[in-house]
Prior knowledge:
There is one protein chain. With about 210 residues, the protein is an all-alpha fold. The chain has helices at about 1-20, 25-45, 55-120, 125-210. The two termini are about 35 Å apart.
Amino acid sequence: MQLVGRTIFIAVCILSAYAIPNYIDVKASENENNGVLGLLVAQMRSALIDTRALTPAETTCATNYNNRTQQINNLLTTQTNACFENANRTLMSNKKSANKTITSIRKSLNKLQQQLANCSSVTEAEKFINCTTNLFDESLHLLDTVNSKAYQVEAQIAANQSQVFVVRSACVSAVISGGKANLTQTANDYQLCLGNISDSYLHDKSIELLD
């Protein structure tokens, strides 16, 4: 029973340690999710009890334990997947929003480049100077606007990633908490089941002695 308890504890610790990376990226998040689930499934399999050497009564206890552990494993897998999938959807939505602003910045820069190119193509000196002078203030204003938008997008991307990290961390933590409680209860039920077998055996022996 102690071995079973230790194995369950290790499974929960592995999920806690690997389910929450420090940097959020859609591709990295998917890879991290696959790694977490692989570790979790492998650890849960090692927590299952081999029933081949057990008595019929012990086999019933172990089978119930194994079935319940597998159900918990399936639930943890589903819920952990949901945490990562929701985070990835949010990241994709944030990325699309940021790309719209980036597209606007590109258009502004292209406009400025085109205006500068138009001035550069003027061959007459006086017209060239006038073109450049007239464009100077507008160019400064446009560059200032573009620079401000770029900083805003950069800050928003960082803030969005941080928010997704917090939400996903809370989601995974809740899954871990629920899984830990369920695994502990399952182990306790298994121990109780074995205890009942022992009590029943002692009771039967007592009756035999009285007879």
